[in-house]
Write a sequence for this structure.
C-alpha cells in the first residue's frame, strides 16, 4: 500500500520511516497521507504501545517537496489530496483543536516519538515539534526556513514551539532560521534525548519497550490527553477534569493489577490499547 514510507511493527514498537532518501525525505501530499494512515494502523494495533517516526538515509525530512511548493505558489493554497488513505487517527473526544494537519498526533492514544537522525527543516521541523518527544542524534540539524522563504511559522509551529522552549528562544529560531544541531537542541529543550549518531531509532524504541514493561497503556493515553488538553484550559477546570479521571482510574483493572504487581514484586501485566 505504501509508496513513500516504510511501516514495521516489532511488538511493542511501530516504526514509520519516511522513505524518499534521494530527496532528503521531502514531503509530498502522498507522504503526509501515508504517515496519517500508518499512525492510525499503529494506534489500532494492540501489539503497539508506542510509535517511532524517522527518516531513511541522511535526514528526518527537508520539509515540503519543492514541486508541491510550486503548486502551492500557483494556487495560493496549502491543502492536498488524501490519495484514498482516509484514516483518522486520534481520539475524537479530544475535540477539533486536535484534528488539524499535524495536531492529530497529539490526539493519538499512544506515544508518538520523533527519531531525528539528520536534517529536519521547514515542515519537517513543524512535524517533529508536534510529536510527544524527540530523540535527536548529535548530527541532527534543525532549521525552520520559514522567514527565508517569505512564509510564517506554519501549521501550529507558533503555538507548540514556545511551549517547548519559551517565546524568546522560539522567536530566535523562527526569525533567524539558523541551524540548531543536536547538542544545542538538547540545551534548548527541543530535544528530549541526545543520541549517538545512528542510534535515535534504537533509543526511542527502547524507551517504548521500557514503558511496555512498566506502565499501563491506558495511563499513558490518559496522561497524554490531560497534558495537551490542559494547555488550553485554566487551572480550575483542569483540576476538575483530573479529579474525574483519577476517580475513574481507581475503578479500573489496571489499578488493581498495578497494586498487585507491586506487592508481588513482579512486572505488571496491563491490557493494551485496542485489545
Amino acid at each position: 500500500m505504501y509508496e513513500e514510507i516504510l511501516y514495521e511493527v516489532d511488538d511493542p514498537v511501530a516504526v514509520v520511516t519516511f522513505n524518499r532518501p534521494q530527496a532528503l525525505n521531502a514531503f509530498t501530499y502522498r507522504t503526509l497521507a501515508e504517515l496519517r494512515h500508518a499512525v492510525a494502523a499503529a494506534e489500532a494495533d494492540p501489539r503497539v504501545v508506542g510509535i517511532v517516526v524517522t527518516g531513511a538515509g541522511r535526514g528526518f525530512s527537508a520539509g515540503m517537496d519543492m514541486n508541491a511548493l510550486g503548486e502551492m505558489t500557483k494556487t495560493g493554497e496549502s491543502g492536498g489530496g488524501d490519495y484514498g488513505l482516509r484514516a483518522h487517527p486520534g481520539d475524537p473526544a479530544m475535540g477539533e483543536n486536535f484534528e488539524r494537519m499535524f495536531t492529530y498526533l497529539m490526539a493519538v492514544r499512544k506515544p508518538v516519538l520523533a527519531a531525528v537522525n539528520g536534517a529536519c527543516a521547514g515542515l519537517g521541523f513543524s512535524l517533529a515539534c508536534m510529536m510527544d518527544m524527540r530523540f535527536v542524534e548529535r548530527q541532527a540539524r534543525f532549521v525552520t526556513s520559514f522567514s527565508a522563504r517569505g512564509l510564517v511559522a506554519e501549521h501550529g509551529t507558533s503555538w507548540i514551539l514556545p511551549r517547548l522552549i519559551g517565546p524568546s528562544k522560539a522567536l530566535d529560531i523562527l526569525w533567524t532560521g539558523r541551524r540548531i544541531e543536536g547538542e544545542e537542541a538538547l540545551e534548548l529543550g527541543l530535544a528530549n534525548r541526545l543520541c549517538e549518531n545512528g542510534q535515535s531509532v534504537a533509543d526511542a524504541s527502547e524507551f517504548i519497550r521500557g514503558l511496555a514493561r512498566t506502565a499501563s497503556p491506558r495511563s499513558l493515553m490518559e496522561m497524554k490527553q490531560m497534558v495537551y488538553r490542559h494547555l488550553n484550559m485554566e487551572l480550575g477546570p483542569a483540576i476538575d477534569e483530573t479529579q474525574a479521571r483519577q476517580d475513574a482510574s481507581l475503578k479500573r483493572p489496571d489499578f488493581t493489577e498495578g497494586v498487585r504487581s507491586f506487592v508481588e514484586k513482579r512486572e505488571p501485566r496491563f491490557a493494551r490499547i485496542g485489545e
